[in-house]
Task: inverse folding
C-alpha cells in the first residue's frame, strides 16, 4: 500500500512573519488566582488578627502598652515579608 502524504502547513511569507511578532499568549498558570484587592484585604485581616493575637498573648507578662507595641512590630514584619516577596516576584516576572 502506498503511504498517504501528510498535508504540509502553509508557511507565511517574509512580510507576514514580521507582522506576527507578537508576544505568545501567557499560559493560564501565570494568571493570579486572587485579585489584587482581595489579596490586600486578606493581608489586612490577617495582619490585624496576628497583631491582636500577639498583643493578647504578651499582655499578662509585659503590660498592655508594650504588648501592643510588640503586636504592631509583628504586624509590620508581616507586611515587610509580603513586600519583599512581591518585589521579588515582580523582579523575576518582568513583563
Result:
Amino acid at each position: 500500500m502506498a503511504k498517504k502524504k501528510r498535508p504540509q502547513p502553509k508557511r507565511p511569507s517574509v512580510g507576514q512573519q514580521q507582522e506576527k511578532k507578537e508576544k505568545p499568549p501567557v499560559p493560564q498558570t501565570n494568571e493570579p488566582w486572587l485579585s489584587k484587592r482581595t489579596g490586600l484585604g486578606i493581608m489586612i485581616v490577617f495582619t490585624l488578627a496576628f497583631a491582636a493575637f500577639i498583643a493578647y498573648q504578651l499582655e499578662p507578662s509585659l503590660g498592655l502598652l508594650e504588648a501592643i507595641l510588640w503586636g504592631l512590630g509583628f504586624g509590620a514584619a508581616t507586611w515587610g515579608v509580603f513586600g519583599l516577596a512581591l518585589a521579588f516576584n515582580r523582579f523575576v516576572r518582568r513583563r
